[in-house]
Fold:
Amino acid sequence: SKTLTASEVLTNLINSDVFENSKDVAFFLQQTMNLLGKSGAKFKLITEKSNKQVYDKFDDKSVMLYDSTDNTIYVTNTSLNNFDEITIASSFIHEVTHSTTVQAYFNPKTFEEKQFKEFIDKSFNQYKYLATKRDENGKLMYGFTNQAEFIAEIYSNPKFREHLQTLEKSWWSQFVDTVRRLFRMSKNIFN
Structure:
């Protein structure tokens, strides 16, 4: 099982014809490209034999898993065969988001990282309190599991993002500004 960088995986996806008919996937791939500059994440296809410890963490709902201890996104052939390309692309951006934000959130060092953590904590608590949208089992949306999932779902799940925007319109621009500062991105028409 060969380890690739997440950038190599994304380049291969973009250069393939696998997603050529999907505008949704193009959106996800563009979002991922924006995040990869900060990530440095590796991407590894595993089998039960090659990495049983990580393989055993996969269940029937798992497309990919991110491990912050080695900054690696793991995937299995089974998960790739069981999900459609939109779900796979969404999962990829979700895991890349973890790779770019987990350290900044859980171990903030710079002023921008501390500001990011404070903003996420405040937003997560406020929106979890206000949230009304439930899944088919009556549970809150997955983005309200914890702060790390909250951040990743904002990037990877348009329905979650739209739900947050319906709760408070001005929040989205505050989120974008906070992320822009975290990644030291200048304000322009593309971000």
